[in-house]
Amino acid sequence: MNRARLMWRKSLNAVMLTLTGIAALAVVSILFLILGYLIYNGGKSLNWAFFTELPKPVGEAGGGMANAIVGSLKLLLLAAVIGLPVGLMAGIYLAEFGGKVFGFVVRYTTDLLNGVPSIVIGIFAYSLAVLPVKHFSALAGGLALGVMVIPITMRSTEEFLRAIPGSLREGAMALGASKWRTIATVVLPAASGGIITGMLLSLARVAGETAPLLFTAFGNRFWSPGWNQPIASLPVMIYNYAISPYDDWHRQAWAAGLVLLGLVLIANLGCRLVLSRTGAGRSA
Amino acid sequence: MASAAHGKDASAVRVAPQVKMIEKNPPTPEKEALVRFEISDLNVFYGPKQAVFGLNLKIPKNRVTALIGPSGCGKSTFLRTLNRMNDTIRHSRVVGSILLDGQDILKMDVVGLRRRVGMVFQRPNPFPKSIYDNVAYGLRINGYSGRLGDLVEHSLKRAALWEEVKDSLHKSAFALSGGQQQRLCIARALAVDPEVLLLDEPCSALDPVTTAKIEELMFTLKDSCTMAIVTHNMQQAARASDFTAFMLDGKLIEHNETSKLFTTPSDHRTEAYITGRFG
């Protein structure tokens, strides 16, 4: 009797352990499947020209996506300039000053904003920055991405600031530091590793966004000087090339996908590195 | 003053031996010592809850005053009122008068007040900066532009930490042990040369050896500093303080010279507490 129950408990334990393990394995293998597929298909057409040349006209083989790579970086720069300061400041406000009711409202609204489909944010940027001037532009695309960066940066900033113990704040205030001085000289430096990581991750998140760029930055087959013209970006390039009827374009879309994923992975790994290093400094 | 001390000498010979113990290090009786803090009819509220009730207390200059009492009796709240740390707590309210050298601290600029009344907390809370920058922090935010290095060294020496850290001033403060961190926090507080040092259970997270070091340190600091210490450890209060105040349920029950309070408490609740019958 007792032994039977023990057997039952042991086997149930083994079954559940196996099931959760399989689920975990599935998650990992999906990522590696995507990565492997991308490398297999994209690696073939990835060459030096891909990074340095402009797209070739239809029918001509070769060419690259240099304009889209630079375009994506320019759009991310705009998104950073527009979104990061607002996200950072709002995060500081929420963590350090936010009142109960107002704080709740802001936090809840931010979560909603985070959940707004990216295409809707695209429409918002379109009506704000494209319709009035009657042309697509890098600025409009940057605005759309910047709006998406705000809630992610804000919540991560808030989380990391909240993780700083209150005793540090009290220590600074007991020495006569004002609230803002305390935040600027003690709390922010202590949380800086985490905050920067959150910022980079939010940029990595929006780097792959396509929908909000379709009718804001639009795309461009040539270089886009300045900030006021339609501009190419990797995700939109992938979209256009993947739905085209040309085999050569399909191969280039794979290559662009690989480059985009590579950029995001590098950003991610860089963040982990920064975080683990500052984290180690904190606990040592 | 001289005649008063003389009179005390004469009376001490006649009374019990435990009073002789005080004779080695005669604290000036409260009414004769210069008063640094004069607290009258102090009430502290957190929202609708009252934490301190009608408290009257004089904290004498260059002496150590210990605050004892069971958990939740309001002693920490009271201590934090003295440099207005409770200002940061929402819905906290202070009614009454607290005079620091005759000036009402409730009307004072809070930054100036905290520069004069430093604080050391229960858990060491060094900033995530180097040892040097920790001590220099208070000086920098107060716009001090003189020779920072000398003052940092002086403060670390006053906190009896200099010998242990003089070769690693630019290492992270987190590399220090708990007891060293606490002394670093004391050095940090001393750097701005406060008139009063408030210590909120400074040794509760430390081992006995380190505790002894901090108590020794308090003894040497008496020359230049007035101290008020909250402690749960009655031996510590008996060892390290000149005056002791016993609080219960937000009220001050008894306040006297430490030796008298511990040997001949006048209130039965004080006696019950110091003999370990509750708390």
Structural overview:
The complex is a heterodimer of chains A (284) and B (279). Chain A has 284 residues and is mainly α. Chain A has eleven helices and no strands. Chain A has two domains: 44 residues; 233 residues, MetI-like (MetI-like fold, Orthogonal Bundle). Chain B is 39% helix and 24% strand. Chain B is built from twelve helices and ten strands. A six-stranded mixed β-sheet of chain B has the order 6-7-8-3-9-10, with helices on both faces.
How is this structure best summarized?
Chain A has 284 residues and is mostly helical.
Q: Which terms would index this structure?
A:
heterodimer, A: 284 residues, mainly alpha, MetI-like fold, 11 helices, globular, B: 279 residues, alpha/beta, Rossmann fold, 6-stranded mixed sheet, 12 helices, 39% helix, disordered N terminus
CATH architecture of one domain in chain B: 3-Layer(aba) Sandwich
What value does the average pLDDT of chain B take? 86
Q: How much of the polypeptide of chain A forms β-strand, as a percent range?
A: under 5%
Shape of chain A: globular
Q: Radius of gyration of chain A in whole Å, from Cα?
A: 24 Å
Compile the SSE list and pairings.
The complex is a heterodimer of chains A (284) and B (279).
Chain A: H1 2-45, H2 48-52, H3 66-97, H4 100-115, H5 118-130, H6 138-162, H7 166-174, H8 179-207, H9 211-214, H10 234-242, H11 247-283
Chain B: H1 2-14, H2 17-23, E1 35-46, E2 49-60, E3 64-68, H3 75-81, E4 92-100, E5 103-104, H4 110-116, E6 117-120, H5 131-141, H6 148-158, H7 162-165, H8 178-191, E7 196-200, H9 208-221, E8 226-230, H10 234-240, E9 243-248, E10 251-257, H11 258-263, H12 268-274
Helix pairs in contact in B: 5-6, 5-8, 6-8
